[in-house]
Write a structure and sequence with these properties.
By secondary structure, the chain is α+β, with helices and mostly antiparallel strands. The chain is built from seven helices and eleven strands. The protein is elongated.
C-alpha cells in the first residue's frame, strides 16, 4: 500500500515552475529601472499583484531601505495580464502565463547602487497550487548617463583596444612559458592523489559523521515525544509477557531490525527513484497523512 501511495504521488511532486531574472537599467541621469522577469513553465499561472481577498496569494515585492536610491511609485506590470474565472477559488483572477515582466523605477543618489529585496509569489496549474514561495534578489544598477560613467566607458574602450593590439605578443610569451613549465614537470612529478590520512577527506568524513550523530541524537530526542514515550510500557510488556522465557530477547532484536530495514529500505528506494523533495512532499500531502492517520487508529485499536 505504501508503494502504491508513492507511485500515485510521483506526478504531484513539488518543483519550481518559475525562474526569475533580475536586471538594472539606466534610463537617464540619476534615474533607472529595476527589471524583474519571471519565466513560467507551460501550464502554470503566476498571479498578478492585484488579487481580491479570498483568492490565491498575489505577487508582491519588498525592497530593503537604502540611502543610495529612492523608489519612484509602485512596481508596474509590463506584461498584459489574463483575466478569467477560476473554478478553484470561485472568482475572477488576473494571472500571467509563460512570461511576466515587472518594473520598478528608482531615483539614484549615487552613480552605482545595489537594490536588495524579495518577491513573494504563488503558482497554480489546472490541478494543483504550490505553497507560496519567496525569492530574494540583489540588483546592481549603474548610472551610465553621468559624465564620470561616460569617461570610464571611454577609458575601458581604449584599454580594450590596446589589449587587442598586444594580444599576439602576449600569446607568444604565454606559449613559451607553458613550454618551459611542461619541461620542468617531466623532471619531478608528484602524485595528485596523495593525502595524509588516505581514503575519504577529513572534511567529507567529518560531514558524514556529523549527519550520523545528528540523526542519532534526533532519534533519542524523538523517544521522549508525547506520541512515543507513553507507548514504551505497552511495547515492553508485549515482549515480556507474551513470550516464553528467553525467547523475548530474540523477538526484540527482530522487531528492532525490522524497523531499521523497513525505514532505511523504503527511504533509499524513494531517494533513488525520485527527486530529493519527494519525502518532504509525502510528509505534507493530505492523502498520505490521512492514510497514516487511519493506520495509527488501527494500531491503537489493536493495543486496546
Amino acid at each position: 500500500m505504501l508503494l502504491l501511495a508513492v507511485s500515485a504521488l510521483v506526478q504531484a511532486q513539488m518543483h519550481n515552475p518559475v525562474k526569475w531574472k533580475f536586471e538594472g537599467k539606466s534610463t537617464a541621469a540619476g534615474e533607472g529601472e529595476l527589471v524583474i522577469t519571471a519565466t513560467i513553465e507551460s501550464g502554470w499561472h503566476l498571479y498578478s499583484q492585484f488579487i481580491d481577498a479570498g483568492g490565491p496569494v498575489p505577487t508582491s515585492f519588498k525592497f530593503e531601505k537604502s540611502s543610495d536610491f529612492e523608489l519612484v511609485g509602485k512596481v508596474k506590470e509590463i506584461t498584459p495580464v489574463t483575466k478569467g474565472f477560476d473554478k478553484t477559488f470561485n472568482m475572477n483572477i488576473a494571472y500571467f502565463s509563460n512570461k511576466a515582466v515587472f518594473v520598478q523605477k528608482v531615483k539614484l543618489k549615487k552613480p552605482a547602487i545595489t537594490a536588495k529585496g524579495s518577491i513573494e509569489f504563488m503558482v497554480c496549474d489546472d490541478e494543483q497550487c504550490l505553497p507560496p514561495d519567496e525569492a530574494s534578489f540583489s540588483i546592481v544598477l549603474k548610472d551610465t548617463h553621468t559624465k564620470e560613467e561616460a569617461a570610464e566607458e571611454a577609458a575601458k574602450t581604449e584599454e580594450k583596444t590596446a589589449t587587442v593590439a598586444l594580444q599576439p605578443v602576449a600569446d607568444t610569451l604565454q606559449a613559451n612559458a607553458d613550454s618551459l613549465e611542461s619541461k620542468q614537470d617531466t623532471t619531478s612529478v608528484a602524485s595528485p592523489t596523495e593525502n595524509n590520512g588516505g581514503g575519504t577527506s577529513a572534511a567529507g568524513g567529518s560531514s558524514l559523521w556529523a549527519i550520523f550523530l545528528g540523526g542519532l541524537l534526533g532519534g533519542f530526542a524523538a523517544f521522549f515525544m508525547p506520541c512515543i514515550f507513553p507507548m514504551v510500557p505497552f511495547t515492553v510488556s508485549y515482549f515480556t509477557k507474551s513470550s516464553e522465557k528467553g525467547s523475548g530477547v530474540g523477538k526484540v532484536f527482530i522487531y528492532a531490525l525490522s524497523i531499521i530495514v523497513i525505514y532505511v529500505g523504503v527511504g533509499m528506494l524513494i531517494s533513488a527513484l525520485t527527486p530529493p523533495d519527494t519525502l518532504n512532499d509525502l510528509a505534507t500531502n493530505g492523502i498520505f497523512n490521512f492514510f497514516f492517520f487511519a493506520l495509527l487508529i488501527v494500531f491503537a485499536a489493536s493495543f486496546l
